[in-house]
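Input chain follows. Return structure tokens only.
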Amino acid sequence: MEKGKSPIAWYYADFLRLIKFSIRPIYSGKHLETMAQPSNASSHLTSASVNHRVTRVWDLPTRLFHWALALCVIGLLTTGFLGGNAMPWHFRFGYCVLTLLLFRIIWGFVGGTWSRFSSFIFAPKHVINYLKGRHDPMHEVGHNPLGALSVLAMLSFLVAQVATGLFSDDEIAASGPLTMFVANATVQQATNYHANIGKFILIVLVVTHVLAIAFYFVKKRENLIKPMLDGDKVLPPNVLATRDTTKSRLIALIILATCAMAVYWLVSLGG
């Protein structure tokens, strides 16, 4: 104890030195950096570190595809139920959906990081663990295992629905452009699936998709719509941002145009 200082002054000085020592690393950022260092990527994602930053997850082509497909599927189902004079528009929506699907398949191999199939095709054990609440937090960056199943199912059944539509014939006023290339038995099978099976499977998938979004928003306080609008999520700094540059967008436009021309050529085969 220094001479001339009372015990109260001594303890007060020690207390100030302790506070200064404790908060100095925080102000300098060293304390936060130390606490944010994970042993692996998963622990980093689950940490409550303030180092989280806005990260581009969904590139613009993926977002535009998503909303364009949503509008076209609604139009496809609506015109299909209306029938009659709405059937020309049913075919147009179908051709648009086919173009978008071809684009998405290609983009699933050459697109941004989190838009590629390799980022959201999970082994069955990952899906089971996710359902049990035991999953890798890195799976939450793009599509989670359950969401990935929903996306793959939607894409698969849309391909089946559009493909069978090309060979369908209602024997009244509407027939697919490629019916002339297959046997009548094949046309009947395609028509039966397209009109009586696939359509209702799609409705179930669409409703399930909407309910899942509502569930995540209400129960988990997670807004899945916002990232699909602006493309961004708040994530740890070690999460790789997707490529979303002018060049990549131009490539996507070229791919889309090529797919549109391919669909036009395919449809024109029917005369």
